[in-house]
User: Fold this.
Amino acid sequence: MATQTKMRYRRVAQNEEEIEERKRKRDAAVDQISTKIQAMFWVSLAAFVVYMTDLPRTVLESEKIDRVYLNISIVCLVINSCLIFYLTVWLPYVQKITLSWEVYCPRVIPTVTVVGIL
Assistant:
């Protein structure tokens, strides 16, 4: 008894436009996969560093850490996170604002920059 192999056939491109369209789609897929692999690498590397340095325990229990600067940096991080959430989620999806950030709220980006420098 012969085994049947399933072959997938696709239409042959008829002109240059179809060939270029397929190349563009393939390039976009390769670019997206590459981006996902790079993101996975960096997240894995960050998790490895946190694990190897025992970062949470060190931050919470070490006497070598200056708590004033740690608290200031945590406050600045929370402020920046709130402002970025406001710009990327609240305005376009909740308020349905279609204007660009520079027009609707021009002082937010300089504020994020100053808070990030602190």
Remarks:
- The longest helix spans residues 16-53.
- The chain has five helices and no strands.
- Helices lie at 16-53, 55-61, 67-94, 101-104, 108-117.
